[in-house]
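Exercise 7b. Backbone tokens:
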């Protein structure tokens, strides 16, 4: 038996908010579910699995466009795993670049904070360095 869930119950079961579920429908990541005569959305188990898939992919930082591609691959029994691996490796490379950028920012901010006396004087080495634009 295929139990149908309202958006509130689908949200609880998937770990998403109702607002995000509606957003994923509008973004065409999730097919719009049928509605009751009263207008309530009803989600089946396949849609619930898709919502969980989307949540996990979002938690890993994939964009909506990437998730759409991943969903398509997931639902294609003829897919080649190399396409999925390529997407994951490309995303991983982007994450590694972001980490390096964040580490550089951390280093510069640490140096700036260390250089500032932080007293009642109006002189501030942090503002001076920012004004240099280097």
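Sequence design result:
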């Amino acid at each position: 038996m295929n139990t149908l869930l309202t958006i509130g119950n689908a949200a609880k079961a998937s770990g998403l908010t109702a607002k995000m579920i509606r957003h994923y429908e509008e973004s065409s990541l999730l097919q719009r579910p049928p509605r009751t005569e009263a207008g309530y959305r009803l989600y089946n188990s396949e849609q619930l699995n898709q919502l969980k898939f989307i949540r996990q992919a979002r938690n890993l930082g994939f964009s909506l466009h990437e998730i759409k591609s991943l969903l398509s691959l997931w639902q294609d029994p003829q897919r080649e795993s190399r396409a999925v691996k390529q997407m994951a490796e490309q995303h991983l490379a982007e994450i590694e670049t972001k980490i390096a950028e964040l580490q550089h920012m951390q280093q510069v901010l640490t140096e700036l904070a260390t250089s500032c006396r932080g007293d009642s004087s109006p002189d501030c080495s942090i503002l001076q360095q920012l004004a240099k634009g280097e």
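Instructor comment: DSSP finds six helices and no strands in the chain. The mean pLDDT is 94.
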